[in-house]
């Protein structure tokens, strides 16, 4: 198996487990704490953050982006080529969809139930711009600053916090957003909200890339990008 094939597998598996954690913990939270949305969100965010740390630490030596925005920005900065970027994004989207199906089935729900939760208000979309910009800034700042070994904790900490301080509860990831249309549960999002969300995420990623170019005009060998960190590898949520 080539290095790219291993990366494709890592991205599919990692994104799938991440989505299963997001959706599964949301379902569990609504069953364990019915009627208390605040407690449900707390349980959902803590479970997501914990799984993120574990996944990034386990898969970072191969590939641990789990996020098309991060992969696209690595392509823009030249860390990966176009065929690799297309393959990795495809693996993330397919893996995320599989994770949603598994989460539904684990809780004895239909494998697919299209979400009816419309989220694309102006406030939610601004929240997604902020959430994604912050996430990319955390990843880029950690890796470009030579702290790639700390990125798992930085990303997980940011995501747990962003669940609470952003109006959108920080999807910040097109693959996860698409996957969450497949579950009409706590974590679900209506298909009609996906395109606005993804566009907001791309805007946030681009804004963060511009800010990183100002903050880190010169990259050190130890802190280039998430993709160049290991074997042209990427990182995140």
TrEMBL record:
<feature type="transmembrane region" description="Helical">
    <location>
        <begin position="12"/>
        <end position="30"/>
    </location>
</feature>
<dbReference type="InterPro" id="IPR023271">
    <property type="entry name" value="Aquaporin-like"/>
</dbReference>
<keyword id="KW-0813">Transport</keyword>
<feature type="transmembrane region" description="Helical">
    <location>
        <begin position="50"/>
        <end position="73"/>
    </location>
</feature>
<keyword id="KW-1133">Transmembrane helix</keyword>
<dbReference type="Pfam" id="PF00230">
    <property type="entry name" value="MIP"/>
</dbReference>
<dbReference type="InterPro" id="IPR034294">
    <property type="entry name" value="Aquaporin_transptr"/>
</dbReference>
<protein>
    <submittedName>
        <fullName>Aquaporin</fullName>
    </submittedName>
</protein>
<feature type="transmembrane region" description="Helical">
    <location>
        <begin position="151"/>
        <end position="174"/>
    </location>
</feature>
<keyword id="KW-0472">Membrane</keyword>
<keyword id="KW-0812">Transmembrane</keyword>
<feature type="transmembrane region" description="Helical">
    <location>
        <begin position="85"/>
        <end position="107"/>
    </location>
</feature>
<feature type="transmembrane region" description="Helical">
    <location>
        <begin position="194"/>
        <end position="216"/>
    </location>
</feature>
<dbReference type="InterPro" id="IPR000425">
    <property type="entry name" value="MIP"/>
</dbReference>
<feature type="transmembrane region" description="Helical">
    <location>
        <begin position="119"/>
        <end position="139"/>
    </location>
</feature>
<comment type="similarity">
    <text>Belongs to the MIP/aquaporin (TC 1.A.8) family.</text>
</comment>
